[in-house]
């Protein structure tokens, strides 16, 4: 059964989760721990999971799944009781977040609404992602399968990740591709989704330039450059500039 040490550990984890919400949610700045504990749905979801997981590890039947079910109904966040979640975990807003049975999440991880840590196929065993420490996962991102998201990585909004991600990477796209590795971003949550690179736009621009060069080469070989029309006007693809909207 659940012992005193387990209850003490769970209480410590919950205190750190509340502190994480105060540190990472701008809306919680200046809000006391008691108010965050009473109102924030992400805190409610992780609180319910801490209790359900402790009971699950103690092999208490039925009750852990009942707690998880009530938590899902109240918060819109579904966390399987068997999922292993480290301390300092924060879910911002949280509606639509799904964390599967064999998911493992490290310390100081931040998730936004609509994130799925899901499995692939119907095989038993490890089938959900492992998320290492200090990872930030943007709204609507889908991480599927027994992949590993390296320490300090950042997953862009609506990214679909189906392969391992190296540490300290930034991943965008569908399927997700690392576009920045070992960047200069300091550790900790970073909600600046505006300044992420756009590899799709860069690829289109490169293809358009290549087509223009091929058309010019073909016209020169044929001796009639007039056959090649003017190059199409392409929208300028520039990295986003200006202040970080996340306040960093």
TrEMBL record:
InterPro entries: Hexapep (IPR001451), Hexapep_transf_CS (IPR018357), LbH_SAT (IPR045304), Ser_AcTrfase_N_sf (IPR042122), Ser_O-AcTrfase (IPR005881), Serine_acetyltransferase (IPR053376), Trimer_LpxA-like_sf (IPR011004). Pathway: Amino-acid biosynthesis; L-cysteine biosynthesis; L-cysteine from L-serine: step 1/2. GO terms for biological process: cysteine biosynthetic process from serine. GO terms for cellular component: cytoplasm. The keyword Ribonucleoprotein does not apply. It holds the Pfam family Hexapep. Residues 218-248 are annotated as: Disordered. One of its GO terms (molecular function) is serine O-acetyltransferase activity. Keywords: Acyltransferase, Amino-acid biosynthesis, Cysteine biosynthesis, Repeat, Transferase. PROSITE patterns: HEXAPEP_TRANSFERASES. Its EC number is 2.3.1.30. It catalyses: L-serine + acetyl-CoA = O-acetyl-L-serine + CoA. PANTHER family: SERINE ACETYLTRANSFERASE (PTHR42811). Belongs to the transferase hexapeptide repeat family. This is Serine acetyltransferase.
